[in-house]
Amino acid sequence: MLLAIALASAVAAVEPGCAALKAQAAPAIAEANADWFRAMKAGDAEALAAAYAEDGVFVGPDGAPVRGRAAVRDLYAARTAKGGPELLSGRIESLGRTCGGQGLVYEWGRGSLTLRTADGRVAQRGGPYLTVWKRLDGRWRIVRNMAF
After folding, report:
1. Is the pLDDT score of 9 beyond 50?
2. Is the pLDDT of residue 98 over 80?
3. What share of the chain is helix, strand, coil (3-state, %, to 5)?
4. What's the pTM?
5. Are 129 and 147 in contact (CB under 8 A)?
6. What is the extent of the structural domain holding 133?
7. Can you tell me the distance from the alpha carbon of 4 to that of 6, in angstroms, rounded to the nearest whole number?
Protein backbone atom coordinates (compact mmCIF):
# COMPACT_ATOMS: atom_id res chain seq x y z
CA MET A 1 0.00 0.00 0.00
CA LEU A 2 2.79 2.42 0.88
CA LEU A 3 4.46 1.65 -2.45
CA ALA A 4 1.23 2.49 -4.31
CA ILE A 5 0.91 5.79 -2.44
CA ALA A 6 4.55 6.65 -3.14
CA LEU A 7 4.16 5.80 -6.82
CA ALA A 8 0.97 7.85 -7.15
CA SER A 9 2.68 10.79 -5.45
CA ALA A 10 5.67 10.55 -7.80
CA VAL A 11 3.44 10.48 -10.88
CA ALA A 12 1.44 13.46 -9.63
CA ALA A 13 4.65 15.40 -8.99
CA VAL A 14 6.00 14.72 -12.49
CA GLU A 15 2.80 15.32 -14.48
CA PRO A 16 2.54 19.12 -13.92
CA GLY A 17 6.11 19.49 -15.17
CA CYS A 18 5.31 17.32 -18.15
CA ALA A 19 2.17 19.31 -18.96
CA ALA A 20 4.19 22.54 -18.94
CA LEU A 21 6.93 21.01 -21.10
CA LYS A 22 4.40 19.74 -23.66
CA ALA A 23 2.72 23.16 -23.70
CA GLN A 24 6.06 24.88 -24.32
CA ALA A 25 6.88 22.51 -27.19
CA ALA A 26 3.41 22.52 -28.79
CA PRO A 27 3.73 25.65 -30.99
CA ALA A 28 7.10 24.58 -32.42
CA ILE A 29 5.87 21.05 -33.09
CA ALA A 30 2.70 22.34 -34.77
CA GLU A 31 4.74 24.72 -36.94
CA ALA A 32 7.22 22.02 -37.97
CA ASN A 33 4.39 19.62 -38.80
CA ALA A 34 2.61 22.29 -40.89
CA ASP A 35 5.82 23.20 -42.72
CA TRP A 36 6.67 19.55 -43.50
CA PHE A 37 4.42 19.08 -46.57
CA ARG A 38 5.16 22.52 -48.01
CA ALA A 39 8.87 21.72 -47.85
CA MET A 40 8.30 18.22 -49.29
CA LYS A 41 6.27 19.59 -52.21
CA ALA A 42 8.86 22.30 -52.90
CA GLY A 43 11.75 19.82 -52.64
CA ASP A 44 13.30 22.13 -50.04
CA ALA A 45 15.85 19.87 -48.35
CA GLU A 46 17.19 22.76 -46.26
CA ALA A 47 13.75 23.44 -44.78
CA LEU A 48 13.11 19.73 -44.18
CA ALA A 49 16.37 19.41 -42.24
CA ALA A 50 16.03 22.71 -40.35
CA ALA A 51 13.93 21.19 -37.56
CA TYR A 52 16.62 18.62 -36.73
CA ALA A 53 19.25 18.97 -34.02
CA GLU A 54 22.81 19.14 -35.32
CA ASP A 55 23.22 15.48 -34.26
CA GLY A 56 19.59 14.44 -34.86
CA VAL A 57 18.81 11.02 -36.30
CA PHE A 58 16.21 10.20 -38.96
CA VAL A 59 15.10 6.58 -39.44
CA GLY A 60 12.97 5.96 -42.51
CA PRO A 61 10.77 3.01 -43.46
CA ASP A 62 13.79 0.91 -44.42
CA GLY A 63 15.19 1.19 -40.87
CA ALA A 64 18.47 2.76 -41.97
CA PRO A 65 19.55 5.61 -39.65
CA VAL A 66 20.66 8.93 -41.11
CA ARG A 67 22.77 10.78 -38.54
CA GLY A 68 23.08 14.56 -38.36
CA ARG A 69 21.21 17.54 -39.78
CA ALA A 70 23.57 17.79 -42.76
CA ALA A 71 23.03 14.12 -43.63
CA VAL A 72 19.24 14.53 -43.33
CA ARG A 73 19.45 17.52 -45.67
CA ASP A 74 21.56 15.49 -48.12
CA LEU A 75 19.06 12.61 -47.99
CA TYR A 76 16.17 14.89 -48.93
CA ALA A 77 18.27 16.67 -51.57
CA ALA A 78 19.13 13.31 -53.17
CA ARG A 79 15.48 12.26 -53.18
CA THR A 80 14.51 15.54 -54.85
CA ALA A 81 17.33 15.32 -57.41
CA LYS A 82 16.08 11.91 -58.55
CA GLY A 83 12.81 13.42 -59.58
CA GLY A 84 10.06 11.05 -58.67
CA PRO A 85 6.37 11.20 -58.07
CA GLU A 86 4.45 14.46 -57.96
CA LEU A 87 3.28 15.15 -54.41
CA LEU A 88 -0.41 16.05 -54.43
CA SER A 89 -1.18 16.30 -50.73
CA GLY A 90 0.24 15.38 -47.38
CA ARG A 91 -0.72 15.35 -43.76
CA ILE A 92 0.80 14.91 -40.34
CA GLU A 93 -1.73 13.87 -37.71
CA SER A 94 -0.21 14.22 -34.26
CA LEU A 95 -2.00 11.72 -32.02
CA GLY A 96 -0.24 12.29 -28.73
CA ARG A 97 2.69 13.57 -26.74
CA THR A 98 4.38 12.65 -23.51
CA CYS A 99 7.56 13.58 -21.69
CA GLY A 100 10.75 11.67 -21.14
CA GLY A 101 13.68 12.54 -18.97
CA GLN A 102 16.17 15.27 -19.81
CA GLY A 103 13.52 17.62 -21.20
CA LEU A 104 12.45 15.34 -24.04
CA VAL A 105 8.98 15.44 -25.59
CA TYR A 106 7.87 12.32 -27.46
CA GLU A 107 5.30 12.88 -30.21
CA TRP A 108 3.55 10.14 -32.16
CA GLY A 109 1.02 10.04 -34.91
CA ARG A 110 0.37 9.15 -38.53
CA GLY A 111 1.64 10.77 -41.67
CA SER A 112 0.38 10.38 -45.21
CA LEU A 113 1.22 11.46 -48.73
CA THR A 114 -0.89 11.33 -51.86
CA LEU A 115 1.20 11.27 -55.01
CA ARG A 116 1.00 10.82 -58.75
CA THR A 117 3.43 8.23 -60.07
CA ALA A 118 5.35 8.52 -63.34
CA ASP A 119 2.69 6.41 -65.10
CA GLY A 120 -0.09 8.75 -63.91
CA ARG A 121 -1.52 6.60 -61.13
CA VAL A 122 -2.51 8.24 -57.84
CA ALA A 123 -1.05 6.40 -54.86
CA GLN A 124 -1.15 6.73 -51.09
CA ARG A 125 1.85 6.34 -48.79
CA GLY A 126 1.76 6.65 -45.07
CA GLY A 127 2.08 5.16 -41.67
CA PRO A 128 3.00 5.84 -38.07
CA TYR A 129 5.79 8.09 -36.88
CA LEU A 130 7.54 8.79 -33.60
CA THR A 131 9.48 12.02 -33.11
CA VAL A 132 11.56 12.98 -30.09
CA TRP A 133 11.94 16.73 -29.51
CA LYS A 134 14.34 18.64 -27.26
CA ARG A 135 14.85 22.35 -26.64
CA LEU A 136 18.38 23.20 -27.77
CA ASP A 137 19.78 26.73 -27.98
CA GLY A 138 16.33 28.19 -27.40
CA ARG A 139 14.62 26.21 -30.16
CA TRP A 140 12.75 22.90 -30.17
CA ARG A 141 14.62 20.44 -32.39
CA ILE A 142 14.11 16.88 -33.55
CA VAL A 143 16.68 14.62 -31.90
CA ARG A 144 15.17 11.36 -33.20
CA ASN A 145 12.57 10.72 -35.86
CA MET A 146 11.19 7.38 -37.02
CA ALA A 147 8.99 8.07 -40.01
CA PHE A 148 6.72 6.23 -42.37
Report:
1. no
2. yes
3. 40, 40, 20
4. 0.85
5. yes
6. 2-146
7. 5
Rg (CA), the chain: 18
DSSP 26-82: HHHHHHHHHHHHHHHHHT-HHHHHHTEEEEEEEE-TT--EEESHHHHHHHHHHHHHT
Domain tally for the chain? 1
Q: Is the pLDDT of residue 3 over 60?
A: no
- Domain of 30, CATH number, reads 3.10.450.50
Handedness of CA 43, 45, 47, 53 (dihedral sign): positive
CB 99 within 8 A of CB 106: yes
> What pLDDT band is residue 81 in, cutting at 50, 70 and 90?
confident
